[in-house]
Amino acid sequence: MHCPFCRHPDSRVVDSREADDGVAIRRRRACPACNKRFTTVETASLTVLKRSGATEPFSRAKVISGVRKACSGRPVDEDALARLAQQVEETVRASGCAEIAAHDVGLAILAPLRELDDVAYLRFASVYRGFDDVAAFEVEIAELRAHQAALATAVDPAVVDVAAVPRYGGAHDPAPPPVHATSAR
Ligand SMILES: [Zn+2]
After folding, report:
1. Strand 12-19 with 37-43, pairing
2. Long-range contacts at 74-79 (CB < 8 A, ≥ 24 apart)
């Protein structure tokens, strides 16, 4: 790697650490000629193939700018957008392909955006899926409601009241073993 300051053709790695939950490696380098230091970030190549046929490197910033428009006026902060973009990148990288269609990036945005904000999700989905009439919104809203209802009724094991759970297997073992009083001797 050329030194960006003096163009010396070599540099020495002085520190290297994982960044972005392992998606990238950040290396601190020193130039043996001018002694200046600089940082490089190494990620597996991930290219987005646009509908026009052009390609560009995957960019979280582009994911965020696309979603930000849909979130206009909604209670979604920058941290949430950054987390969403990270989730999207993890999803598309998990496909194992070095090149991914722009359409699939949009698809990877839908699920986390639905969890983030329902109005932003509907706005984004309407553009992404090309809703051209009210009926398309109605279908999407019905699906969104069904999803929310499913989430609301799903039992989270972490919030089950332990005291309410039968200790002896419930219906399969209706007669718990008698509890012997342990009297003081
Ligand atoms: Zn240098």
Report:
1. unpaired
2. 74/117, 74/119, 74/120, 75/117, 76/116, 76/117, 76/120
Residue 134: CA count within 13 A, CB half-sphere = 0
| Cα 17 to ligand 1 centre (Å) | 22
pLDDT tens, position by position, 123-164? 999 988 888 899 999 999 999 999 889 988 876 655 545 444
Q: How much distance in Å is there from the Cα of 16 to the middle of ligand 1? A: 19
Name residues with Cβ closer than 5 Å to ligand 1, which is an ion: 3, 5-6, 8, 31, 33-34
Residue 163 DSSP label: G
Contact 8, 39 (CB under 8 A): no
Q: Which two tokens stand for residue 82?
A: 């950054």
Dist. CA 149–CA 37, nearest whole Å: 54
SS3 8: coil
The DSSP symbol for 175 reads: S
Q: What is the pLDDT of residue 169?
A: 43
How far lies 37's CA from each of 4, 32, 73, in Å? 9, 10, 42
Are residues 72 and 6 in contact, defined by beta-carbon separation less than 8 angstroms? no
